[in-house]
Amino acid sequence: MKYMMFVCTDTEPDKDPTAAPDIEQWVAERDANGQRLTGSAFAPPSAATTVRVRDGELLLSDGPFAETKEAIVGFDLLECADLDEAIEVARAHPMAYGGRIELRPLVDLD
Q1: Hey, what CATH class is 2-105 in?
Q2: Are the C-beta atoms of residues 9 and 96 closer than 8 Å to each other?
Q3: Which of 76, 88, 92 has its CA nearest to residue 38?
């Protein structure tokens, strides 16, 4: 099953930043065992453009639409047997310590 793993900042990171694993090691291990299909960091929220259409009119806004201190800073597309495996992959990610991880299963539209 495929899961989108959103990597997010958090206003309350773990108090011991030295406990977080190394990101390059995390990526290499997940790539090697086929759990991570792809992933990337994002440009900062200030580089975002919000797109909406209302009454046929295109509305564009600079920066993130939501006013929040947390931000999605990257993503990884995972291939895992089930949610339990996806949780184990996410808990080993460095941002599980310094930020937060959101897992969402992808929906098969076929």
Answers
A1: alpha beta
A2: no
A3: 76
Q: Please state, in angstroms and as integers, the Cα–Cα distance from residue 38 to each residue in 2, 12, 41, 75, following that order.
A: 11, 27, 11, 8
The tokens for 106 are: 């992808």
| CA 90 from centre of chain | 10
Structure tokens at 8: 């997010």
Q: For residue range 49-94, what is the model confidence (pLDDT) as tens digits?
A: 888 899 999 999 887 666 667 889 999 999 999 999 999 999 999 9
% residues pLDDT > 90 (the chain): 68
pTM for the whole structure: 0.84
Question: What would the DSSP string read from start to end of 38-94?
Answer: EEEEPPPGGG-EEEEEETTEEEEEES-SS--S--EEEEEEEE-SSHHHHHHHHHTST
Residues 76 and 30: beta-carbon distance below 8 Å: yes
Pull the structure tokens for residue 102: 């959101």
